[in-house]
Inverse folding.
């Protein structure tokens, strides 16, 4: 069982930056690929980014590519999402997800989920 807790959300002006963090409670964090998804009101959950267990591979959704950066620290059991050049359309609840095998963009691929953190971008 893996418990995930996101933090770092908040209100930011368009063009600004935020850094989200996800802390994982597991002794085998480095066994898991870690991802970030987001969900705006009335919309489906959308893939943002994923990072491999070693940190050697990353993959981004088209809507965040070039603006967001995913990273991880296996010594601290954390995964981060640095979000720059934020836009009002980035407003959503952001979720951290973990899976031993998944490295894709479909939410159903991921076994463990956090409760989410709200990001609001004001125009």
């Amino acid at each position: 069982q893996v418990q995930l807790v996101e933090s770092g959300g908040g209100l930011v002006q368009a063009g600004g930056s935020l850094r989200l963090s996800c802390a994982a409670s597991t002794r085998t964090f480095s066994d898991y690929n870690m991802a970030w998804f987001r969900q705006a009101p009335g919309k489906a959950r959308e893939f943002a980014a994923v990072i491999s267990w070693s940190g050697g591979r990353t993959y981004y959704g088209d809507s965040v590519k070039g603006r967001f950066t995913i990273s991880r620290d296996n010594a601290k059991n954390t995964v981060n999402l640095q979000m720059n050049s934020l836009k009002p359309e980035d407003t959503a609840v952001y979720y951290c997800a973990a899976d031993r095998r998944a490295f894709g963009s479909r939410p159903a691929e991921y076994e463990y989920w956090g409760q989410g953190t709200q990001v609001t971008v004001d125009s």
User: Anything to note?
Assistant: The chain has a mean pLDDT of 97.
